[in-house]
Specification:
Blueprint: E1 5-10, H1 13-24, E2 28-32, E3 35-38, E4 46-51, E5 73-76, H2 80-90, E6 93-94, E7 103-107, E8 113-117
Parallel strand pairs: 1-4, 5-8
Antiparallel strand pairs: 2-3, 3-4, 6-7, 7-8
Helix pairs in contact: 1-2
């Protein structure tokens, strides 16, 4: 078995793919109305985005009665401030709750949490 991608649902898969393309610098692969892919230039698992018209974004941090986060992406960076500014410029929002010193939680344009982190 070989993991090929993590798939994120979105009401606008192309827009979410463009966000992650701006963040990661990966080229587009498939680009269909309901399915868009990004693949890292050096190979390895990529990201895919599928249409979910009724997406309910998860709540971060989780709270009773709200959609819980099922997964999130951890993205290692060299500089949290610089990477965070790039994420915000691409369309992310800084989450109000930050649980760790060397990690910053952001919400992508569809509301999926993702973490930027540096090695301590």
């Amino acid at each position: 078995m070989k993991l090929t991608a993590t798939v994120l649902g979105a009401p606008d898969p192309r827009a979410l793919a463009k966000f992650y393309q701006a963040l990661l610098g990966w080229p587009l692969g498939a680009d269909e109305p309901d399915w868009v892919t990004l693949r890292p230039p050096g190979g390895g698992p990529g990201l895919s985005f599928q249409l979910e018209r009724e997406l309910v974004p998860p709540r971060w941090p989780q709270a009773p009665g709200y959609q819980q986060m099922m997964l999130h992406l951890d993205i290692e960076v060299d500089d949290l401030a610089r990477a965070g500014a790039k994420a915000v410029a691409a369309g992310a929002r800084l989450a109000p709750f930050q649980p760790q010193e060397h990690v910053r939680v952001y919400l992508d344009p569809a509301g999926h949490p993702f973490c930027l982190w540096v090695r301590p």
